[in-house]
Amino acid sequence: xxxxxxxxxxxxxxxxxxxxxxxxxxxxxxxxxxxxxxxxxxxxxxxxxxxxxxxxxxxxxxxxxxxxxxxxxxxxxxxxxxxxxxxxxxxxxxxxxxxxxxxxxxxxxxxxxxxxxxxxxxxxxxxxxxxxxxxxxxxxxxxxxxxxxxxxxxxxxxxxxxxxxxxxxxxxxxxxxxxxxxxxxx
Length: 186
Hints:
It comes from Streptomyces fumanus. There is one protein chain. 52% of the residues lie in helices and 6% in strands. The protein is mostly helical. Strand 1 (95-97) and strand 2 form a beta hairpin. Helix 3 (54-72) packs parallel to helix 5. The longest helix is centred in the last third of the chain and has 21 residues, at 165-185. It is globular. The N and C termini lie far apart (48 Å). 30% of the residues are buried.
């Protein structure tokens, strides 16, 4: 599956956005305030975003919840419906642009759109490409029992199971190894 630079950036943004959501009521929110949202926008080089406000923070958190539902959807039809709602509500307006030293690419948000609509449109379209390509199963949650972080499996054979093989994957492999050794010794 060919993934363009702008689609890859949108995928990274949507995964990072979904992963800012607290896992439960006791966990802290990864977007606790407007400053954190501003840092998120800056770190993902989201263009055409003006001064952010509490309203933007609230709207982005709502969009984040909708994206989280896409990653948790049991089937493609459910994910497609959620994505359709997101991009329709954002007032998707595809247009070609070549800003900030990048070659021609497509933005799906309307000029002057809020940061929430920007994320809904661009990230929604990036996820839509996976559904259209029959690759929705690549939108996953980590299989580690104590981690449910979202990720996009871009491995060639669709075999990635953990959000990070160096942390979640390695931790589970070490635990399994120790359990086998204990059983053998025992």
